[in-house]
Amino acid sequence: MDKVAILISLAVMSSTFGGSQNATRPVASAKKYPASPIDVIRSFVDDLYDESTSLTEACATYTDWPDFGPGDSVLIATRRDIRLVSQSTSRSTVEVRFAVIGEMSDDGTSLDIKEREDKLLYKLSQRIGTWRIQVPIFRSYVSLGAAIKSLHAAIDSDSSRIAAGRLTSNYESAWREHIENEKKTLRTLERYQTKPPNK
């Protein structure tokens, strides 16, 4: 990857999934904290699934995980199901199943379609009346609708860079290629939205 492509990738990743764009979104801590283990998991998963808050904020609100940065990809899912597996006075297990269609790079320029079901078992513990997630360390699952919405916003933002007319020819060419790759990803996802594939 040449220097121009690297700079473009860094610029886009900071403003698409999990970057500065999330800083302006409502945060999970503004809501009343869920009382039950299954409601903690539902709030945590759905805040990220619908991209209503950032990964950093959701982890700080609901988990005891160590601080870590966002990954370089997200998993796109068409459905998620949540159920309580077990609960005692201080510990609980909650199962989440995701109908995954594929993995998309954070900048939206690549999409690896691999349809499958992912099952995660979340372990929670209660401290001072509050349920917190202990394991597993989470990978970002994003709904199909949220991914499509973010891609439309990214394409509009990236196109505005070209329309401003302040790019050198090398940068403009690289941005145009980047946008075409985003559009290719978007077209693939929109096909799933309009006519989900048969299982």
How would you characterize the overall build of this protein?
With 199 residues, the protein is an alpha+beta fold. The protein has one domain (3-194). It has 5 helices and 5 strands, in the order H-H-H-E-E-E-E-E-H-H. Strand 3 (111-127) and strand 4 (130-135) form a beta hairpin. Helix 2 (37-49) packs antiparallel against helix 3 and helix 4 runs antiparallel to helix 5 (169-194). The longest helix has 26 residues, at 169-194.
Low-confidence stretches: 18-29
Strand order of the largest sheet: 4-3-2-1-5
- What is the structural class? alpha+beta
**Number of helix segments?**
5
Strand content is 25-35%
The averaged pLDDT comes out at 81
CA-to-CA gap between the ends? 37 Å
Radius of gyration, in Å, reads 19 Å
Task: Tell me the major beta sheet.
Answer: 5 strands, mixed
Order of helices and strands: HHHEEEEEHH
Briefly summarize what is shown:
This protein is α+β, with helices and mostly antiparallel strands and 199 residues long. It is 39% helix and 28% strand. The protein has one domain.
Helices and strands, with pairings:
Blueprint: H1 3-13, H2 37-49, H3 55-62, E1 73-87, E2 91-105, E3 111-127, E4 130-135, E5 141-143, H4 144-163, H5 169-194
Parallel strand pairs: 1-5
Antiparallel strand pairs: 1-2, 2-3, 3-4
Helix pairs in contact: 2-3, 4-5
Question: Which terms summarize this structure?
Answer:
alpha+beta; 199 residues; single chain; 5-stranded mixed β-sheet
